[in-house]
Amino acid sequence: MNAIGRFLKDVIKNRAMLLFVLPATVWFLFFSYLPMFGTVIAFKEYRFSDGFLNSIINSKWVGFDNFKFLFATEDAYIITRNTLLYNIVFIIFGLILAVAMAIILSEIVNKRLAKLYQTGMFMPYFLSWVIVGYFTFTFLSMDRGMLNQILNFFGFESIQWYSEAKYWPLILVLINFWKIIGYNSVVYLAAIMGIDKSLYEAAMIDGANKWQQIRRITIPMLAPIMTILTLLAIGRIFYADFGLFYQVPRDSGALYSVTNVIDTYVYRGLKVTGEIGMTTAAGLYQSFVGFILVITSNYIVRRFNKDNALF
Amino acid sequence: MKGDWAVFRKRKRDFHQLTPAWNILFNLIAGIFAFACVFPFLFVTIISFTDEKTLAKNGYELIPDQWSIEGYKYVFQTGDSLFRAYGVTIFTTVVGTVISLIFISLFSYAISRKSFKFRNFFSFFAFFTMLFNGGLVPTYIVATQLLGLKDSIWALILPMAVNAFYIMIMRTFYSTMVPDALIESGKIDGAGELRIFTKLVLPLSLPGLATIALFSTLGYWNDWFNALLYIDDPNLVPLQSMLMRIETSMQFILQNSQNSSLSTGLLQNMPQDTSRMAMVVLATGPIILAYPFFQRYFVQGLTIGAVKE
């Protein structure tokens, strides 16, 4: 009784702040927490019936059957493989390219030119994936695209890009880098600008050349932010950028073997094929493994360097 | 002149800087990549001004044989759906950004206050959503079956309104930029919490809010996913989603043209490719023109976001 009394007293004392958090809290309940409980659908044979609660309650409990069906299909393997492999490439090479580009921009002698380059590189970040899809089409269209025109010019046959799966891993990787490297390098560039200049002066007095300075000062000073961003990316390694894998290949069925990722699979399961239970199972598999990955990677970083960890 | 050259040479030999050869190489790498980033937009613009017959004959070219503004003419003739889509996008962007700002700034301010008893609970409440989520299907079912968002303009606004990551950024911002003494002095002067927040805290946190506002504006402007999920009504289709629908066929734009007498004969004569590319240019134009001005703030915002508490 006393505990409840004290709690109520705290509520009254903090009522203003509680009102402040109210709108976003309601939002979180509806858009984050209720769906978390909604994952119970993954263990049911979902049937739409009258209203939200009724649908969930009236659906038959099937235990892990949805998961069994999911992992019995070849799809489960393909979407896991695609999601993981693309993300690994994005994380490793994305990090190297973004840091390299930030260092290049920071070292260019003419600062105005560097600024101009940076503005150019930043542009793709402002465009939606739909637009990027159109851009891609101007290069890859079978009969009008620029790439086939170039191929023809050199005497090669045209290629039906939107139905040849083997080219797409490279295309998607390139387009992803095209879109995000400029943005990511800005983050690192900002960090480089924040490095204490006296460090470089001291290094120069000791006779360090430019490369030694980059290796011994710039990169180590970037390490914390590199770790944090990589950690965030590893935590999201089971999530793919839906736009990249849906818009850019124009949802072309011939390419599914290399463009289907967990997110596109779940979307198609929901909107196209209507396999609600199995699709929810795929979504839950994604969230659950993602959760484990964030916790684990954060734990590992904590053990090495507490300051670099996320939480 | 000679003096300038001497200064120039002296600067070139500066030990702080790269050697000229490396400088040229770095300029080349950065310059080529920057050009590659901008080029596709120039290319689409050129295509949109190409004559449709030339296009059919030669494909997409950098320097077309025949220029034309037919594509744009048709878009403006049958453009009701384009303008409606503009309207939907502008509405969702403005209303969405305002809602986001209100929800996020209030929540993150409360959890930044050390005197708030439940701050740890609510911090975790928000943070946990970054770690785990229900996934697309349950979210979709809650939104459509419980909240009734199907074919509602709110389906384009609410799902994106709050973002735990922005809350974390704003919390850090408040706790570093707003001194406790300020809030205390406000209290001593007899101001209530809301007054303290609006009169003292908000003015100080404008840079942080501006950052969130920009990211949120960009998010709403570029969103097509929520429309793909929730919107079937052609009157509620936002810009990006409309571009998506006309990707393979101009049918959508004609179906929704109020000039139905016009549209019957139009489909055959319509310069399909150039019109489509003209729409891409018209839809992308505002953001391309605005982004060099916003870039500075984005960079600042990214720096704020990089600060960890």
Automatic annotation (TrEMBL), chain A:
The chain crosses the membrane at residues 16-43, 84-105, 126-147, 167-196, 217-239, 283-301. Residues 80-297 form the ABC transmembrane type-1 domain. It is found in: Cell membrane. InterPro entries: MetI-like, MetI-like_sf, UgpAE/MalFG_permease. Keywords: Cell membrane, Membrane, Transmembrane, Transmembrane helix, Transport. It comes from the Bacteria. It is a multi-pass membrane protein. The keyword Amino-acid biosynthesis does not apply. Belongs to the binding-protein-dependent transport system permease family. This is ABC transporter permease subunit.
TrEMBL record, chain B:
Gene3D superfamilies: MetI-like. Keywords: Cell membrane, Membrane, Transmembrane, Transmembrane helix, Transport. The chain crosses the membrane at residues 21-49, 85-109, 121-141, 153-174, 200-221, 277-294. Signal peptide: none annotated. InterPro entries: MetI-like, MetI-like_sf. The keyword Transmembrane applies. CDD domains: TM_PBP2. It is found in: Cell membrane. Pfam families: BPD_transp_1. Residues 86-299 form the ABC transmembrane type-1 domain. It is a multi-pass membrane protein. Its main location: membrane. Belongs to the binding-protein-dependent transport system permease family. This is Carbohydrate ABC transporter permease.
